[in-house]
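retry 2 of 3: previous attempt timed out while embedding N-hydroxy-L-asparagine. Reduced batch size to 1 and resubmitted. Inputs unchanged:
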Amino acid sequence: MKSRRKFLQKSLVSSSLLIPMSWQAESFGVGRNREKHKPLILSTWNHGMPANDKAWEVLGNSGSILDAVEEGVKVTELDLTNLSVGLQGLPDREGIATLDASIMKGDGSCGSVAFVRQIKHPISLARKVMENTPHVMLAGEGARQYAISEGFPVEKEELSPGAEKAYLEWKKTSEYKPIINIENHDTIGMIGLDANGKMAGSCTTSGLAYKMHGRVGDSPIIGAGLYVDDEVGAATATGLGESIIRICGSFLIVELMRQGRTPQEACEEAVKRLIAKNKNIENIQAGFLALNKDGEYGAYAVQPGFNFARHHRGGKSLVDAGSKFKGNG
Ligand code: SD4
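retry 2 succeeded.
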């Protein structure tokens, strides 16, 4: 899924964030990237482009990087063409869509929900957990009940047409065989830095297609799918959650940056660590995205095909990340 799709030029107008939005697709190799941008919004995969558009607009209007990363990924949660985020996503092996999400601010505040059903915007529920409860994480029926108490609408439990078609097809064999980059790896993780150096991040997913009922991935686990620290930087992950949890991927990257690595070097080191700690690596895709407090950024994946959306004052683009393995073309 090496998308080099060109998107229409749009202009985003706000008082503080006037940017001429030229669209380009770029390649982002293993090199030592030292480019800096503040503000900067990054998110995983090509669905990150419309999500970042929204985040950028919200940042311009409200000035809040937290609002920006929440509203940005809500676009993906509603995107009916996306089968790996939101209630329209591919279900577990019982045919039920269950969602994971997390949100974090650079001051250490964080919230998440896991294995939640029937709630359209798990990212907003994660934010409520962060802001209105003494807890960090709510799961399953408890998370759903909490959503109801906060006034979230409860959606009918039915698969989207795309998910139902895929599920019925899968049921013919019920074989669990993730297809790298296509079927299972399109979580959106978004990390952002505002003009004053404040950071926030969000991550939301329907998780692995045809997972066991009750399975939770890395996305709602603070430190695995997402980590943000205003003193250092932020990181988010996509791909096979089990492989990312094993190395506390996002926390690892932030700690490597704290020790002086660039975001690019930290992402590459995390991929190296992940490869060392996981068997059957040829069947695993995982990708990381990071930025530091100066506005430098980096990305790296195990397999080719990972890309990310990048918005800053100078423009916006979809960038191909480098990867440890090169694939067969
Ligand atoms: C998970 N990390 O649940 C998620 C899936 C994913 O891109 O990232 N897809 O394991």
